Input
Amino acid sequence: MLHILLTFDYELFFNESYCSEKEILIDSTEVIRKALDKEEIKATFFVDTPCVYRYKEIGQDLFPTMVEQQVNELLDDKHDIQLHLHPSWFKAQYEGEKWKFEQNDYSLDKHDNPVELIKKAKYTLDSLAGSNSNYNCCAYRAGGFCLSPEEEILNTLYRLGIVFDSSVCCGVKMESVAQTYDWTGIRRRGQWCFNPLEGVRSIGSNSCVMIEIPVGTFAQIPQKWSLTHGHPKLNYPPFKGKASPVEEIRKRNKIERIKDRLVASFTTPVLFSMDSLHFNALYKIAQDYMTVSQKENREIYICAIAHPKFSSNESVENMLQFIKKVRNHQKNGIDFITFSDAYNRLDIIRQ
Ligand SMILES: [Zn+2]
Output
């Protein structure tokens, strides 16, 4: 059986914003929540708490209050609240009614005290949701998939009671000023156990105590082209903010850049992303994982990813079409679960 975890990275922009926090995050999450509730589907929201921490720190309580209320409503509805961390917020400065970010602060390895920052982020989440009986923080997703310094992060998470990581997207790599990660060395279909002392690549080691449930990817050629080019593109309203710049570390010349792009088009997998993929493409990726699950006769757990800040009525409708298609065609082969559901099956998953 294939278990899909619908996950939403609950966060603001780390660059210029063109709308209010309410419009960017609270209202768009509400649209998603209503859509999920209509289908009786439970999802996981990875809450970026350093942002809440900084708003509180400078005495702006309106946004943290809205987040607290929404997080608790989601929990009351049996959705899942887990930990997400974009550390640039810790050093963000509020100037002229705008947040200013240093792109160099984007990942934890650029900070002196990653352990302290993870603890701060986790305690902030506890302060928002800790009194809700449905709260069970057991999973982490690194901001921008940057899980570095890996062993320090994983050990701290484990000591805080977090047993799932969801920062990996197998086969994908990024090398920019802000964001650097390389998951090209991992070619796994579905989840695996690992030892936090040895890192996320210590697949199947003797003392496997943590579990990676990665964000799904699809790498086969030529099918992957039809996923992105074979379906109508989703139409989006103008973005509510600016994405972090993906400025290259090394300035390459034009020919090198074209060559890189060509190589990447063969080697970079497609992400199981509800932000951008047509529902038929999402369904094909799900089918592919299900085929592996049936062939290898094992349970597979995999995440689909989306961001409320990028969502639109059309993308939410597209997600619903995907859910309905799975339910109509694969009712017995695929289900939708949360990280808390996975936590309740921990012993089975670890086997
Ligand atoms: Zn994020």
Notes: The domain at 2-350 is CATH 3.20.20.370 (TIM Barrel). The first strand starts at residue 2 and ends at 10. The CA atoms of residues 23 and 313 lie 13 Å apart. The mean pLDDT is 92.
